[in-house]
Design goal:
Radius of gyration: 25 Å
Distance between the termini: 62 Å
Largest sheet: 8 strands, mixed
Strand content: 25-35%
Strand order of the largest sheet: 32-33-35-34-36-37-38-39
Structural class: alpha+beta
Number of strands: 39
Helix content: 10-25%
Shape: globular
Length: 688
């Protein structure tokens, strides 16, 4: 029986023309609305003050440079007022320890863009191990996710003449050896899936044109995409791999043996996360029953590399870690011969080092790091067991620790961020709100210790609620300086859809079950009001991307609870989502409204764009997006604003013409976004 294809609303939607990202008509509409919003904010004296404060924070030389290990050097990408697009640079560990490290510039993105007449944005680098001299540098035009890739030589600090080059595309690539790459890209201009990702993987040979690349694997146009990579350990072992993503969460994983892909018999909701001493590390997002043993969703297991390559269809995993009832994996990293797991325990950070023992066992020891902090693995060294760990909390500035994953010795404090706002007068609380099904939803409150509990504190609530992304405590100079210091309170809600408590917390809100995520957020808002911190006249909320969808749904379903709603780089038209940017790739999260009648029915009553009421009493929202966002796309925000305009509903719309899926392509653009946001909340929530 064929799958039914649901009718589309193209004939009923008068704003399809705004879906052309850079058409003259669409950009004229954008420019006109940008002018109105810019005039509105710049008329407020607070705006210039907030811009200057945001710019000073974002461009401050006192920020901790985030670094990665490459042989005997530390590498950093840095943006500031002098280097708006940034410089890639390096120093030694000894120099990095000092208050004023001596940096050597490797690549100047501003100078490159000026020389080539391009709006280049740096998107990362992959270097060939073990020498880590030859690198693949990814560059985006204006901040989009699509990149072009060029080979770069760290010894000469220059691009390699006649070296590897991959034209602009959504793509995946990795080194096999000095003369070969595994590449998934848009080979002919027609080789992307409906989601906009590559699905054909080829082996590219140095000195030969891309047209001569040898095809290794071909997925399907209906997949999300196929992505290539190479997993290595500190002993020189490597495994060439392919991941065929059938949706955003399900994939078939292949290992390449003697040039041929062979499917690896791991669950579809699992991922390979590295290799240590010949043991391939696999994270599980669903239960895996094999050999009479069931490994729980959220666990981490290991596979013997030699046995896996010999027989990929018959595997014998060994357990490394299994979660408790309030635990979840945050990230996984490897050093030369250690595995590092960053985990959450009731949203509090832990980092544990695992040593591989004979017979497949692992010895664990927790690294001695501060309690009650958000902890993250910043960098791990492939050539030693050195690891850099970041620690922060809402009121404690970031610290960067250097630890030895093979030792119980106390980590060395390398850097501590200077205080960016006055913290002593504030307090952090963790509360729980009962959602519509009785589930307790934790949330954090940051407020002044003497904040009146009479409902008059201007308060902003933030959440994300999707894609298993965990929201943990963070130190933010912009939140602190631009909002808290002026008397506002800030709330971070750990609603379902995220990964704070493992796969089940995420899966509770998938597809047509998604209303529970929105109920969770509403429960937190009502609990904040019930405790007396704020009230609808003083309460605002915001979210970006999937969180922008949360903001749109919240505005439509519960406008009575808020006086301000910020909607950033959002998804809002959930009926046509598959036709916009990367939207087709997220059907595993939201369901497929094109083919599934139940999903269609759910979003017809929930999608913000379709459910705006011409007679609705909504707070005037602030809607922010970017032209160069090729992930969610600016189309959702444009159409939502246009429909509000049609209905005579007030709104503020601003579209940054660069920036990609974020706040901006450089610190000036990001400062504009923060200044607009906090001017908006200050105006709407009676804070000055």
């Amino acid at each position: 029986m064929s799958t039914p294809v649901m009718a589309q609303d193209t004939n009923e939607d008068p704003y399809i023309w705004l879906e052309a990202p850079a058409s003259p008509e669409a950009m004229a509409w954008v420019e006109a609305h940008n002018a109105v919003t810019t005039k509105r904010f710049e008329a407020d004296p607070l705006y210039k003050t907030l811009y200057d404060e945001a710019y000073a924070i974002l461009s401050s030389p006192d920020r901790i440079p985030s670094v990665s290990f490459r042989k005997d050097k530390l590498y950093n990408f840095w943006q500031d007022g002098e280097h708006l697009r940034g410089i890639w640079r390096r120093t030694t560990l000894d120099s990095y320890r000092t208050a004023a490290p001596q940096w050597e510039t490797i690549l100047d993105i501003d100078a490159l863009g000026k020389a080539e007449g391009k709006s280049w944005v740096y998107k990362g680098v992959s270097c060939l191990r073990p020498e880590e001299r030859l690198c693949l540098v990814a560059l985006s035009d204006g901040g989009a996710d699509a990149t072009e890739v060029r080979e770069f030589d760290l010894a000469t600090k220059s691009f390699v003449e006649g070296g590897f080059f991959i034209p602009m595309s959504q793509q995946a690539y990795d080194w096999v050896d000095e003369n070969h790459l595994l590449v998934a890209t848009n080979w002919t201009g027609k080789d992307l899936t409906g989601s906009g990702y590559p699905y054909i993987v080829k082996r590219v040979t140095r000195g030969q044109p891309l047209a001569n690349a040898v095809e290794i694997f071909r997925g399907g146009k209906d997949d999300v995409g196929t992505f290539s990579g190479v997993v290595r350990d500190g002993d020189g072992n490597q495994v060439e791999m392919l991941v065929q993503a059938t949706d955003i969460f399900h994939s078939n994983t292949y290992v390449i043996v003697d040039g041929e892909p062979k499917q690896l018999a791991i669950p579809q909701k699992s991922s390979v996360n590295g290799m240590v001493s010949g043991r391939v590390i696999v994270g599980l997002d669903e239960d895996w029953s094999v050999g009479g043993t069931t490994y729980k969703a959220g666990s981490v297991v290991a596979l013997d590399r030699a046995a896996m390559l010999a027989d990929p269809a018959n595997l014998a995993p060994t357990l490394i870690w299994a979660p408790g009832p309030r635990e979840a994996i945050q990230s996984i990293a490897t050093t030369k011969d250690r595995l590092l797991l960053a985990t959450l325990d009731n949203v509090s950070g832990r980092i544990t080092s695992y040593e591989p023992l004979p017979g497949g066992a692992w010895a664990a020891h927790r690294l001695p790091l501060p309690d009650n902090m958000a902890l993250g693995i910043s960098a791990a060294d492939d050539d030693s067991n050195r690891v850099l760990i970041g620690a922060e909390s809402f009121l404690t500035p970031d610290s960067l620790y250097l630890a030895d994953a093979a030792s119980n010795a106390a980590p060395e404090t390398l850097k501590t961020l200077k205080t960016q706002f006055s913290a002593p007068g504030y307090t952090v609380e963790q509360h729980e709100a009962a959602s519509s099904d009785g589930t307790k939803i934790p949330y954090f409150v940051i407020r002044a210790k003497d904040a009146p509990m009479d409902g008059t504190t201007p308060t902003v609530i933030y959440a994300y609620g999707g894609f298993s992304s965990s929201e943990t405590p963070f130190y933010s100079g912009t939140v602190g300086k631009l909002w808290l210091e002026r008397g506002g309170a800030y709330v971070l809600a750990n609603i379902r859809g995220g990964g704070e408590f493992g796969p089940a917390w995420h899966e509770a809100g998938l597809g047509t079950k998604r209303q529970i995520i929105y109920d969770d957020f509403t429960a937190v808002a009502k609990d904040v009001i019930a405790r007396g911190l704020s009230s609808p006249a003083y309460l605002g909320m915001y979210g970006g991307s999937n969180g922008g969808l949360l903001a749109g749904v919240t505005m439509v379903q519960h406008p009575e609870l808020y006086s301000a709603i910020g909607i950033q780089v959002p998804l809002l038209d959930m009926i046509r989502i598959s036709k916009i940017a990367r939207g087709a790739s997220w059907q595993g999260e939201y369901g497929n409204a094109d083919t599934d009648p139940e999903v269609r029915a759910f979003w017809e009553k929930t999608s913000p764009y379709q459910n705006l009421d011409p007679n609705g009493k909504y707070p005037e929202p602030w809607i922010f997006t970017t032209t160069r966002d090729d992930r969610t796309g600016p189309q959702h925000a444009r159409k939502f604003a246009a429909r509000m305009e049609e209905y005579g509903l007030p709104f503020l719309f601003y579209e940054n013409t660069e920036g990609g899926h974020g706040s901006g392509a450089d610190v000036r653009q990001s400062a504009v976004m923060y200044a607009q946001m906090y001017t908006y909340f200050a105006e709407k929530l009676c804070l000055k």
